[in-house]
Every structure is written in structure tokens, then in C-alpha cells.
Amino acid sequence: MLTASLRGIASLRHPLWMCGLRPFFLFAALSAPLFMAAWSLFLSVGLPLPAVAGGPFVWHAHELLFGFALAAMAGFLLTVVPEFAGGDDFTAIPVRRLAALWLFGRAAFWTSGLYGNAALALAGVAHLALLGGLALLAAPRLWRDPERKHLAFLWALTGFAVCIAGFYFDALRGEHPARWLHAALGMFMMLIIVAMSRISMRIVNHAIEEAGIVGIEYRARPPRRNLAIFCIGLYTAAEFLAPGARLGGWLALAAAGALFNLMNDWHVGRALLRQRPLMLYCVYVAMAAGYAVMGLSLVFETGAFSAGRHLLTVGALGLAIYAVMGIAGRAHCGMPFETRRWLPAGALLLVAAAVVRAASAWPGADAQALLVAAGLLWTAAYGLFAWHMAPLFLAPRADGRFGCKGTAIP
């Protein structure tokens, strides 16, 4: 079946290229378990990882953020910009060029230990070209929208470009580039809030309708959303300028408070307990908990800062991408919402991975065993996702139509 799906993949008419999310969601679905499996093997048996600036920990964080998460973000933007701002789907040629840049970025960064600064510079150029290409496709449509309601996506691309440029600038100078990875994580948290405010209206209100609840309507209120984004932005700036400072702790606690306040919009009764809204709600739970733990650690010097950081990466980021790819991926492949148990099972595995990874940072814990266990849980969750979803991205739409929007076949 896989061989048949891959046949003719070089052709622009192959199903992989009919929608912008398909190649990038495929990259994200495959890279998530593979990258984490490699990391777990490094921790457990010393499997060699690519020699890069900053060492194995930088490779791990870079590939989580600028590999896996960047692929998911690219697929999301290539699909929702035409949906939100109007216009036809993006065509196969620019989508394939952007996909090639993502692959080239992986190859150049991974071989930078062998080929030195030349490969490192090429990796930086590839990543920036990918973001620039996304901006060139998205910006005209976002600006043409009379209300310009979705310009936040363009500002996000600008922010990520700054983080990537800063990362490679520091790496090429021989400085440790981790501060730019931390800044990029903050950017992803803000982007998650922006993106979920757009898709949650449909998901939660659909769940309310399914549950037969009358007289309740979910609304993603801009003041609460904007407050949460503002507080996360302040904390991210403080961490960048003065890492480890107590001021950053108070700002992290402010971000946690703003996120808990944002979650009040979601309290719509039993409809919240349905599969799709509950997955999205748990993203905010993990995000709020992560900032709360980081804040308390900085203010009271508890030493548990890493636990909070990984509630953001493994929990909020990992679960947000899993849920959005699972929901949007099926919808734009012409499939109904998933009703089988594998989707919530994978979400539970990711929640468990976040909790176990956070627990590894607490004093007295068997950190090595818990780190490996968390990696295996993540790998199992995304391995399950790839098994069920990867074939959809390589096959024609199930409804017999074409593209992201499901137009008649040209």
C-alpha cells in the first residue's frame, strides 16, 4: 500500500502536493517519533547524534522546534491562510519548493559537524528561506483582507525568522545559541493561542451541538487571549535578556494566571469532555502549568525549572500539534472527524509523557529512567499518529474532490 502511495511522487499531480498541509504534516508526523527515538537512545545507550554547535542538547531542541514544530506550523499556515483570508489553495510548485527547503535544512544542520560553518550557514539560509517563502505566499492575502484580522500569523513568521537568524548568528560565532531556542518556544506558545482561537470556535460549538446543549455558545474572547499573549511575550523577553532572574519568575506566574483566566471561556459544561475540545483544552492546562512551575521555581529557587519548561514542550506544544494535525489533517483529506480510540489514546500518551518528563526534574527522582520513559511515551504517541495519518497525506481525498478546500477535480 505504501509503495503504491509513493509511486509518482515526483509528479506535481501526486496527492502529496494537492494541499499545503500534506507534505509538512507528513514531515511532522514522521519526524516526531524518529527524532525522539534517537534522543531516547542517546540518553539510554549513548547512540551518537549529529555533531552540531552546542552539542546533543541543542540538536534535540533545534529539531523539536525548528524541525518538527516548524513543519507543523508551515502546513497549518499553508492551509488556513487561504481558508481565513480567501483565495484558491496554494499551488503545488511553491509547496514543493518549501518542502525541499525543510529537508535541506535538516541535512545541512545535521552535517554541520562534518562540514563546519559552511553547512551551518546553509542550514540557516534554508530555514530563513522557508519562512520567507511562507511570508511571500501569505502576506498578500493577509493584507488584502479588509479587516486584517489574521495579521498575527505574519508577525509570528517575523518573530520566528528573528529567532532562527539569531540562533545561526550565535552558532557561527561560536557562542551557545540556546537563548534563541527558548525565545522560539515562547513564540510557539503565543502562536498556539492565536491558532486555537481561530479553530476552537468551530470545534467547541460543534461539540455543544453534538451534546444537545441549548442556550450556550462558545466565544474566544480577544481581551483574555490578548492578555495571555502579552504576558507570555513579557516573560519570553525577560528570559532572553536576564535568564534566571526573579523578575522572570513573577512574569511567568502572570502568564500562568492569564492562561487560567483564558481557560474560563472553555467552561461550557459536559460538551468540554468530548474528545476534540478536551484535547485542545488540555493544551492550555499544560501551558498554564508549565509557566506556573517555571515561575515558582524562579521566585522560590526550587530547582524545578526544567519541569515547567518540558510541560510547555512535551505537553503544550506536543499536544497542540497532535490535536490540530489530527483534526485538520483528516478534514482537509476529505475525511470525517476521527471516532476511533487511537486518537485520544495518543493524546493520553502525550499527557503522560509530559508528566513523566516534568517528574524527572524533581529532586530525588531517577532522572535517567524517567527521561527515557517520557521519550518512549512521546514516540509511541506520534508513532500511533504516523501509522494512522501518514497514509492519508499520500492518498487522494476520500471524498473524491481536490485540494485543501475540496473543490471539484480540475
The amount of beta strand, in percent, is under 5%
Number of helices: 14
Largest sheet: none
Please count the beta strands (DSSP E, at least 2 residues each): 0
- Mean pLDDT across residues: 94
Notes on the protein architecture:
The protein has helices at residues 2-6, 21-45, 56-85, 92-110, 112-115, 117-144, 152-173, 178-210, 222-241, 246-263, 275-300, 305-331, 342-359, 367-394. The protein has 410 residues and is mainly alpha-helical. The protein has a single domain, classed as Up-down Bundle (Cytochrome C Oxidase, Chain A), CATH 1.20.210.10. Helix 3 runs antiparallel to helix 4 (92-110) and helix 3 (56-85) crosses helix 8 (178-210).
Would you spell out the secondary-structure blueprint of this structure?
Blueprint: H1 2-6, H2 21-45, H3 56-85, H4 92-110, H5 112-115, H6 117-144, H7 152-173, H8 178-210, H9 222-241, H10 246-263, H11 275-300, H12 305-331, H13 342-359, H14 367-394
Helix pairs in contact: 2-3, 2-14, 3-4, 3-6, 3-8, 3-12, 4-6, 6-7, 7-8, 8-9, 8-11, 8-12, 9-10, 10-11, 11-12, 11-13, 12-13, 12-14, 13-14
